[in-house]
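your task:
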Amino acid sequence: MRATAGNIAADYANGFQDVVSGFLSGRPSWRAYHDSLRNASQPELEELAASRRSESLAFLVLMLTGVCNADCGICFTDRKRKPNELTVPERDDLLAQAAALGAQYVYVPGEGEPTLDKGWWNFLETCGELDLPAVVFTNGMIFGDEDLCRRTWGMTPLEAAKKIADYPVYLYSKYWTPDSRLSARLLNVQERRQPYGQVDGVPVPLGLQTLMEYVPRDRVGIEVCVERRNADDVIQTIVPFAERHGLATLVEMMQHNGRTFQDPSYDMTDLQADAVAPLLSPTSCTLGTCKAVVTVQGYLSPRIAVLENQLPQDRRRVVGADFYRLLHETPYIVERRYNLACLCETIPAELAGEKIDLRSVYNVTPPALANAVGISVDAEPQGGGVAVAAPAKASAGGCGVSGGCASCTALCAQH
């Protein structure tokens, strides 16, 4: 809420009154703040924005590289290293500016595979120096493939996992199915490149097993993107496994963007979608008011899965710039900041000039955030069919409900 308030003040002071007022109107909890903005002089607005500058960013979303060693059929990216990816010094400057604006962590979803970035260890060093934890999503293959690990980092997977444990990084490793052959097909890799081991009799990728053995358990998580071929595995095996072992989970729907745009072949059946919906993790769509997204080449983007070629021609690059000013003087960023729909799907649809069916996409809103920005978690589908589902349950268990958090329907403190 503090970060949102800081951004509202800055955007209002910079002439985006209509955008801000459109967001605040109809949100009773923000009425007094809105009135104070309307009654303030320009110097007062600027002073208010300046006073909130150091807490105006909740977190930074940063892509490290476009290259990837997997080729997931549902992926919307092209898996290629870009010609002008941010250099280590450029990234260090951005991270320092983000920390100064109050960012609590840096979120690395990966346009490609983050561990293959040439500045990977430098990135972690900088995060440590800035006390800026990194939440990184990885296919985990490097922690299970000794040849890849030696070629990339000059060490064994075991050595890499032990080294990772010394940095402020939280790793969400891909675990899409307990079936190693199906996993190879989902990631479109040779099976030997993602060998499987076992944890308590459950088949898991060897990379995940290595991380679970050598990295503190509270810094290891599972990421799974649900589609028709693995939905049953998510329900029956993966989420229960995570709950038993105290692993954080990010259970998400595929994005209909890039090569999957208007491709329904991977979509779950209605029965699968209904069963998976309670397990979906809260998304960051509704955090658009207080986050910033930077692509691999350093361009500001309104959302994580909006591709660089989908940005306007006057797209802004962060290199050598005042990050704060860019965030509050760039129209396509400010105008999208307060649109809390699933822009990763609506923007490509708008650019194509076509209406697409987004029935299978859920924007799960954390209850606390819903209260802060005035969103109903039980709202009807909105934004071209984008559904606002009931809040997902925490994955760690311990709420005392028979069946664990996945079966809990109460909004207790844990949830």
Notes: Residues 231-244 form the longest helix (14 residues). The two ends are 19 Å apart (CA to CA). The chain is about 35% helix and 10% strand. Residues 106 and 325 are 19 Å apart (CA to CA).
